[in-house]
Design goal:
Helix content: 25-40%
Distance between the termini: 41 Å
Number of helices: 11
Oligomer: single chain
Strand order of the largest sheet: 6-7-8-3-9-10
Order of helices and strands: EEEHEEHEHHHEHEHEEHEHEEHEH
Bound molecules: adenosine-5'-diphosphate, magnesium ion
Strand content: 15-25%
Mean pLDDT: 83
Radius of gyration: 24 Å
Structural class: alpha/beta
Length: 356
């Protein structure tokens, strides 16, 4: 799936670099987004995701390298480069005292939707329906939840009938229901054939909705390829267990080592960390039970994909399974959140041609 398609890709970056002072926010980036894919740009805070997207929208210029959108470049084609692209950076903005529909009407006028021979009102109704806001369209945006505003942002982008939808951390800051709705929306749009480029700091999210991913770390590409290829790099999953007698459990597992040779067992204070394929973990549990040692809790540690994400973006930090100190008998989880929320991210202009 890494073969270059015959048609120009939706996005092609080569050696793309953007510096702020001494620091390269985007550093010699190569990236190809094939048309028709849902492409995830994944990285911790400060990795350069927003800067890349701002370059895509022509909001900041590159210091070096090239960036093509469906074969067009800013240097050669100017603003026409943006014609097939819509989306938003960080959060879309709207007039809060107007309804969702009225905001879209304004944008449709600015975008001359009617000039394309479309009936603007019908089109507005259509995009509101797509993002599941039709029943709330005639309420003021000030009464919308954050998730509804994000979806209205997607509706605004869709008004332009883009071939490429660019979304910068669309699920960031949403509550679980908002995240679910946003994921469902992106998946629906992707099925309709739209190319989607979205950024995220959440491996889970990218795994659920993207087919290709570029992992960025400190402005550079740490991985690029299909989710399938990324999974192949992932270590075996880790499980943490607590038992009725951890020392006995360790002895039993060591004695059975020849039958369990695809599992590594390490101790942490109050728990055992088992790393290996699921079937081997199952054999461990059965072996312990046969030996009279009861397994009290068994919980997955850091997911394999998260582990590979950490190892690519924080190479010096070991995935924290071994140092974890669970409370005996309590359910525990070593899942660490991938990054803090984007608190210090610089504000960028809304690019869906929204007001303000
Ligand atoms: N306008 C700016 N001025 C100075 N530094 C910036 C600016 N925009 C971004 N940066 C820096 O560039 C790096 C990448 O930031 P950003 O692209 O926002 O990352 P991400 O979106 O992945 O969190 C960070 O170190 C950030 O502080
Ligand atoms: Mg960002």
């Amino acid at each position: 799936m890494t073969d270059a398609p015959a048609a120009p890709p939706a996005v092609r970056a080569r050696g793309l670099t953007k510096r702020f002072g001494q620091r390269a926010a985007v550093d010699d980036l190569d990236l190809d987004v094939a048309e028709g894919t849902v492409y995830g740009l994944l990285g911790p805070n400060g990795a350069g995701k927003t800067t890349f997207m701002r370059m895509l929208f022509g909001l900041v210029g590159a210091d070096a390298g090239t960036l093509e959108v469906f074969g067009r470049t800013w240097a050669h084609d100017g603003v026409a480069t943006l014609a097939p692209v819509a989306g938003f950076i960080e959060s879309p903005r709207f007039y809060p005292y107007l309804t969702g529909r009225a905001n879209l009407r304004l944008l449709a006028t600015l975008d001359r939707v009617d000039r394309r021979g479309d009936d603007a009102d019908a089109r507005i109704g259509g995009v509101l329906d797509t993002v599941d806001l039709l029943d709330r369209a005639d309420e003021k945006v000030s009464g919308y939840s954050y998730g509804m505003r994000q979806r209205l942002g997607v509706a605004a982008a869709l008004l332009r009938e883009p071939r490429l939808l660019v979304l910068d951390e669309p699920a960031n800051g949403l509550d679980p229901a908002g995240i679910r709705d946003m994921r469902a929306l992106v998946t629906r749009l992707a099925r309709s054939g739209l190319t989607v480029l979205l950024s995220s700091h959440d491996m889970d999210e990218v795994e659920q909705i993207c087919d290709h991913v570029t992992i960025m770390s400190k402005g550079r590409v740490a991985f690029t390829g299909s989710l399938h290829r990324l999974r192949a790099l992932a270590p075996a999953p880790t499980h943490l267990i607590t038992t009725s007698d951890d020392l006995a459990a360790l002895r039993v597992l060591s004695k059975a080592a020849s039958r369990l040779d695809d599992v590594s067992v390490t101790t942490t204070h109050g728990a055992l960390a088992l790393r290996g394929p699921q079937a081997a973990i199952d054999r461990c549990v059965i072996t312990l039970a046969d030996a009279g040692v009861a397994v009290r809790t068994l919980v997955p540690g850091t997911s394999p994909l998260e582990a590979v994400f950490f190892s690519l973006t924080e190479p010096e930090d070991v995935v924290p399974t071994h140092s974890h100190q669970p409370e005996p008998g309590a359910a525990m989880s070593t899942r660490t959140s991938t990054a803090p929320k984007a608190a210090g991210a610089p504000a960028a202009a809304a690019t869906s041609r929204s007001p303000r």
